[in-house]
Amino acid sequence: MTEQLGTLDELPPSYLKELTSLDLVPLWPFLRGFLPYGIPERKTKPAHWAYESIRPLLLQAGDLTPIEKAERRVLVLCNPGHNPEDALVTPTIYVGLQLILPGETAPNHKHTPSAVRLVVEGGGGFTTVNGEKLPMEPGDLILTPPGLWHEHGHEGDGPIIWMDALDLPLIYNIEASYCTEGEPQQMKPDPDGSQTRYRRAGVLPYQSLNQRDYGFPLLRFPWREVREALKDLSKITPAGDAVQLAYVNPETGQECMPTLGFSALMLRPGEEFTLPKRSSSGVLKVVEGRGQADIDGATYDWDQHDIIAVPTHSPITLVNRSGQEPAYLFLVDDAPLHRKLGFYEEFK
Ligand code: GTQ
Predict the structure, then answer these.
(1) Residue 203: pLDDT over 70
(2) Measured between alpha carbons, how far is 116 from 96 in angstroms, rounded to an integer?
(3) Domain ranges, residue 165
(4) Of 196, 170, 183, whose CA–CA distance to 87 is shortest?
(5) Of 133, 147, 172, 337, which is least surrounded by CB within 10 A?
(6) Closest CA to 197 of 251, 136, 139
(7) Is the Cβ atom of 98 under 6 angstroms away from ligand 1?
(8) What are phi and psi of 236, to 5 degrees?
């Protein structure tokens, strides 16, 4: 290891002043801060948000702020290790809870950040992405990839609430985040791809053999089907191993968004398991059940729809509190980004 690095106050003030006047700094006093040994510096804290405490405030926002004055009526989860105005749950991931009331629409736009919605409660909501109308039922995952037009509507009764996850902090910090407004979309009459072209895993429209769709062919992953698939997978998964399914692009088998990864986890009754420490950060959203989480030494009790921040390099231990019912969690992480950058790691 390098011996103790030189500090700023070891340098003559006149020298520092001259550097400053030329917009220069010496690296060595800051080097270890940028490149710490063994583990990155992490401002992000493990954190937990109880849905029960957010829900009434989100409904109150429905009374206080008409949709026309909000564009998107969202309460943003702010990691306590960062400034609230940075609006991030992890260094790359933004999470908000969005409310739409019956008859409201959130207008059409497109932007450079990638976004997904995980439906929390309510029926009759939909997102239209490039003309494809995607129904939103509880637990469904809806993708709005970078650069695709999207708008939200609500044809049901009662409020609809979903969790938005975006790679906004990443895209904002590389100074690439912007949005374009659009006219309302023309909706195609056909049901969405999850009900037609990509009806089940293992079979594709025949033409895909000649021409793959390398874009974003499947934009909606119905929870009903993912839940069934988890139950079937659990039958052959050894006790103590994670029952976990990755959401993928059906044409390529690869992750379905550029920077964000999605998976669903099932905890059998009474089950406890540990997911290895990984280089990526993430956010857990409880879909069903109650239990406990240990994130890098911080312990939380979680209930349905709660949200938990997982910093980089954090092991996750999850326990299902129920001895009778399975619990289901959804995980969004930035592992695809880490893989593309060539440094994704899982630590045993
Ligand atoms: O629904 O398009 O939470 O553009 C933040 C930015 C939701 C959306 C957010 C957005 C949206």
Answers:
(1) yes
(2) 11
(3) 47-201+218-347
(4) 170
(5) 147
(6) 251
(7) yes
(8) -115, 5
Is residue 166 in a domain?
A: yes
CATH code: domain of residue 99 = 2.60.120.10
pLDDT digits over 297-322, tens only?
999 999 999 999 999 999 999 999 99
Confidence class for position 348, pLDDT limits 50, 70, 90: confident
Cα-based distances in Å from 55 to 158, 261, 276, 290, 332: 13, 26, 32, 17, 21
Let me know if residue 31 belongs to a domain: no
pLDDT at 125 over 90: yes
| Residue 29 within a domain | no
Q: Provide the pairing of β-strand 298-302 with 346-347.
A: unpaired
Tell how far the Cα of 114 is from the centroid of ligand 1, in angstroms. 10
Q: How far apart (Å, rounded) are the C-alpha atoms in residues 304 and 185?
A: 34
Task: Tell me if 337 sits within 8 A of 92, measured CB to CB.
Answer: yes
Closest approach atom of ligand 1 to CA 144: 2
Q: What pLDDT does 299 receive? A: 98
* pLDDT band of 3, cuts 50, 70, 90: confident
Residue 30 lies in a domain: no
Atom of ligand 1 nearest to the CA of 127: 1
Q: Return left, alpha or beta for 246; rule: phi > 0 is left, psi -120 to 50 is alpha, else beta.
A: beta
| Number of domains comprising the chain | 1
